[in-house]
Amino acid sequence: MRASLERFFGLELRGTDLSTEVTAGVTTFLTMAYIVFVNPQILADAGMPFDAVFVATCVAAAFATLVMGLYANYPIALAPGMGLNAFFAYGVVLGLGHPWETALAAVFVSGIVFLTLSVLPVRRWIIEAIPQGLKLAIVAGIGLFLGVIALQNANIITDSDATLVTAGELMTAAPVLCLLGFCAIVALSARRVPGAAIISMLGVTLIGLPFGISEWQGIASLPPDPSPTLLALDIPSVLRANMVAVVLTFLMVDLFDTTGTLIGVAHQAELLDEHGRLPRMKRALLADSGGTVGGALLGTSSVTSYIESAAGTSAGGRTGLTAVVVAGLFLACLFLAPLAGSIPAPATAAAILYVACLMVRPVVDFDWSDATEAAPAVMTVIAIPLTYSIADGIGVGFLTYVLIKMMAGRRRDCSPALILVAALFALKFAWL
Which among 26, 106, 191, 345 has the fewest CB atoms less than 10 Å away? Predict the structure, then answer.
């Protein structure tokens, strides 16, 4: 078996070995395993059954990661994406009032479109049409959006008739446990402790037991019934004009997030070619888009590549065997449903808050020397959390970018695709 793995994944060619790949896989899994607990809680806020989403999360992550490992041969893991799940629950379902079955259908359609674009050359045209500043702003804006959601879930902030938002009762159990868990994640991560988020969430869960914040349900059991969300998507309901912006948002965020993550992790692992391109990019994108399609059928939001994969490549992972190990561990998580149900909202809020901090980092790469680039990017970052809608925030960013460039006499900076997208958002704001 060792010899077969050596030949299939090309371990010696990549300068790695079996034990290194396994260690890298475990490292990657520990850094992103929080999604198994966080994703079901977020989608449960949209009315989806927690246990069924838990199963869908584990299986979709395992499927997409396995395809990435076996088909693309990259040490990159995938799972339902943070930010995309927030848009699903708080934007599409709670914000726009669509049933979660319709939201699943929108994810499915966006995945089919992404799958098609991954095969066609038009993919590069779309990616290059969007200015780099707006791409970075979308990530940072989603980060702030997640931060607001985390603070709300932990009752650190609450609504106010006078000021829209204000501080909650900060010295009660939920806010204190959330902030304690958040600080623990940051401290453990700074000490390079693998699985910092998992350790923190379990610690907060145990501390919350005597305060009635946590309800212990056990550790392991047989996997829950996945049927409540399996094939529950409502395709006809998504074939309406007011769903176009929703599908486009799922598609754009997934496309840009995936491409950036693939390039970033591959660069860190020295897997890019001499021209800075990623070999087998098409295969990697097919794994990602196929994961989104499969995840929608199972009952979860869009699946995407995880930047946490860089933890595994830092540990020496260089081939798809690392991803195969991660996929196996996700499948093993199917038996941890009672533990997932025991983790309270303050514990998952702490993990979401930490992810939010990481996602805001791209603001340092804004072109601050050019106001026509920086201002639309900042508008996007502000608009996403304050409109409580990733789609509307992106629309504000695109519109301001095009208008500013036109008024500044820099029409050439706006590609036809960008102008078209901005016009579509203008129509959405006016009539939908």
Answer: 191
Q: Read off φ and ψ for residue 217, nearest 5 degrees.
A: -115, 0
In this structure, what token pair is assigned to residue 193?
Answer: 């402790």
What b/e string do you get for 367-388 counting C-beta neighbours within 10 Å, with b at 16 or more?
eeeeebbbbbbbbbbbbbbbbb
Any bridge partners for residue 304, and if so which?
79
For residues 145 and 150, what is the distance between their CA atoms, to the nearest angstrom?
A: 9
What is the percent of the chain where pLDDT is above 70? 98
pTM, rounded to two decimals = 0.84
Residues 6+ apart with CB under 8 A from 359: 82, 83, 139, 140, 142, 143, 146
8 A C-beta contact, residue 341 and residue 44: no
% helix / strand / coil in the chain, to the nearest 5?
70, 5, 25
pLDDT beyond 70 at 432: no
CB 281, CB 258: distance < 8 Å: no
DSSP state of 366: S
398, amino acid identity: F
Backbone angles phi, psi at 62, to 5 degrees: -65, -45
Asked if residues 322 and 28 have their Cβ atoms less than 8 Å apart, the reply is: yes
Q: Is the pLDDT of residue 12 over 90?
A: no
Nearest to 397, CA basis, from 249, 262, 258: 249
Tokens 């094939």 map to which residue?
Answer: 231
- Write down the pLDDT at residue 124: 67
Length of the chain (residues):
432
DSSP 307: T
| Bridge partner list, 166 | 158
Query: How many helices, marked H, and strands, marked E, lie in the chain?
Result: 20, 4
Summarize pLDDT for 107-119 with one digit per residue, the tens: 999 999 999 988 8
Q: Is 121's pLDDT higher than 80?
A: no
Pairwise CA distance, residues 316 & 314, whole Å:
5
Q: What is the largest CA-CA distance in the chain?
A: 68
Beta bridge partners of 160: 164
